[in-house]
Amino acid sequence: MELYLDSAIIEEVEEINSWGIISGITTNPTLIAKAGKDFKETVIKICEIIKGPVSAEVTCEDLEGMIKQGKEIARWHDSIVIKLPCNVNGLKACKELSNDGIQTNLTLCFSVNQALLCSAAGASFISPFIGRLEDINHNGIELIREIKEVFEKHNIKTKIIAASVRTPEHVSASALAGADIATIPYTLFDKLINHPLTEKGIEKFMSDWKKTI
Ligand code: E4P
Question: pLDDT value at position 36?
């Protein structure tokens, strides 16, 4: 499973990129607003840091606007993937953009049927939201598993991005459920790598080593 960072904050992108483990970035309008900088400048800067897909979401809700904005954003950089909502206009825009050779990520996916329709519209990526499903007491990891099973059964090439990832368990369970990618918030990366037994082990090795010198 590939790892993406879910952030639009340049310092966060630079820091996690320096770990050598991420192969893409996802953003959304909330994350862009939180970063507090110009949308276009931010996305282009991220594309210059990361070698891999960078998802940037349309903010127009009408079909014409969505398509126009999607095509415009796609021209900013070759790495850009256009994020569209899992609704009727999102499907139509997805078809149009993918016919033009533009990569798409269909976001806010909460069901297998949404994933099926998005893949039929030519989506490059689909983003099922684990955390937000759990917020309403549904099983987000089970949704990832089901979409994976359906995609495998029907030889569907759309890649599954486990999104709305909030805990270390979401990351490992997404990998086990067959997600192609997990997009992970900045603060979670520390929790994924740090382990008290690793820290304790390093301390012991170092104190034993120092006794020999
Ligand atoms: C993914 O593409 C989204 O940006 C993100 O994972 C949403 O996460 P949230 O539900 O924690 O806001």
Answer: 97
